[in-house]
Amino acid sequence: MAPIIFHIDVNSAYLSWTAVEQLKNGAAVDLREIPAIIGGDQKSRHGVVLAKSPAAKRYGIRTGEPVANAFRKCPNLAMYPPDHKMYREKSRRLMEYLRTFTKEIEQVSVDECYMDFTGIADRWNSPVDGAVEIKDGIKERFGFTVNIGISTNKLLAKMASDFEKPDRIHTLYPEEIKEKMWPLPIGELYMAGKSSVEVLKKLEINTIGDLAQSDPRLIMLHLKSHGKMLWEFANGIGTSVVQSEPDEAKGIGNSTTLSEDAATMEEIRPVFERLAQSVGGRLKKAEKKAGMVSMEIKYYDFRTVSHQIQLDRPTNDPEVLKETACSLFLEVWSGEPVRLLGIRTSKLSDEAAPEQLSIFDIEIPKEPDEKHKRLKKAMDELNERFGEGSVMKASLMPKREQNKMHGRDKKK
């Protein structure tokens, strides 16, 4: 029997949950029925639209745009700040309810999850009937709506749930790909970030179908391994395994929440450099090298995206980790503001393990000279003795501290 995978996504979660909470406390107006947004004060770090009502969407208001722009489009717009504590509680209760149907649930963000429906499918006449019961049960029990996408793997289920909203159920089985998915703009393909879309459009690839019918070798020539993945996604090839329990930690990684949302590579690259120094140092301390590097992005609205690559050669070199993370980032970044970045390594091997080199391995990094080796060893020893970050390159210091240093130099 082919797997049956559901992707369950709360419709405009932040706004819906805020509306439900307000109605529970006696509000006379439902935010979902008027022009309304969840956003932040223009002076705060959340000065963008995080969620919008259908009525606000009709004014041309977009998620991610500055709040000031939204008010210019609709002066009588209702705005409320985000309440992440309340959102987490709503999310927890939703997941508890879904687990009364099956424990095979993989939560991927505060407002979405995958469900492996295969083992319980025989309780209903069809997967759609089961989805209807789940969807209507959520609406009746909690007062908000969800979209449910149904397919044979997670990728297609995710794509299906993004079809027409709200409060809908959509199927996207492999035999429906040409009709339902291929006509969509290339930017709607899962993991097709802004930079990738720009490259594809230059190749006159404007729809998902255009990409699916392209020569994968041409796509890989321009987008490397990420291009191969996008080509596979366009053809409906994706993972079908729902990971109901997180895998045992088999790697070393680190992530950081930024003090201010980052929107340029000038801001993002130093963050990856600091993370790479930390992860590389921990790998060396554990006497390990990593064969796989993954990069994580959490956007301003808490959507999370990750991307990974198998390395040609295991490493614990911070410079390699940084450049790999930056490359992965650019392949999937949508161009929207980022609030968290992370680097994780896996497929660890012993540092002393011999490496099998190919005669084609000609791009060997230049070995540091003795002066730089001694300097790096001294920095590692000081950081180990006094704590990570005690000694670092000036370029890795936060901008605020760099500015202070420059200010002192000028005074002198």
List the helices and strands and how they pair.
Layout: E1 5-10, H1 13-24, E2 36-38, E3 51-52, H2 54-57, H3 67-73, E4 78-80, H4 84-98, E5 105-109, E6 112-116, H5 127-142, E7 146-151, H6 154-161, E8 169-171, H7 177-180, H8 194-202, H9 208-212, H10 216-234, E9 252-262, H11 265-285, E10 288-299, E11 304-315, H12 318-332, E12 338-350, H13 370-386, H14 399-411
Parallel strand pairs: 2-4, 7-8
Antiparallel strand pairs: 1-6, 1-7, 2-3, 5-6, 9-12, 10-11, 10-12
What are the defining features of this structure?
412 residues, alpha+beta, five-stranded mixed sheet, four-stranded antiparallel sheet, 14 helices, globular, disordered C terminus
Short description:
It contains 14 helices and twelve strands. The protein is α+β, with helices and mostly antiparallel strands and 412 residues long. The strands form three sheets. A five-stranded mixed sheet has the order 5-6-1-7-8.
What would you say this structure looks like, in words?
With 412 residues, the protein is of the alpha+beta class. Helix content is 40%, strand content 20%. It has 14 helices and 12 strands. The chain has a 5-stranded mixed beta sheet with strand order 5-6-1-7-8. A hairpin with a 2-residue loop joins strand 5 and strand 6. Helix 11 packs across helix 12. The C terminus is likely disordered.
Query: Numbering strands along the chain, what is their spatial order in the largest sheet?
Result: 5-6-1-7-8
Biggest sheet overview: 5 strands, mixed
From the N-terminal CA to the C-terminal CA, the straight-line distance is: 76 Å
Helix- and strand-based class?
alpha+beta
The ordered string of helix (H) and strand (E) elements is EHEEHHEHEEHEHEHHHHEHEEHEHH
The geometry reads as globular
Q: How much helix, percentage-wise, in residues? A: 40-55%
Please mark out the parts with pLDDT under 50 across 5 or more consecutive residues, or reply none: 358-367, 408-412
* Count of β-strands: 12
Please state roughly what percent of the residues sit in beta strands, choosing from under 5%, 5-15%, 15-25%, 25-35%, 35-45% or over 45%.
15-25%
Count of alpha/pi helices: 14
Radius of gyration: 24 Å
Mean pLDDT equals 86
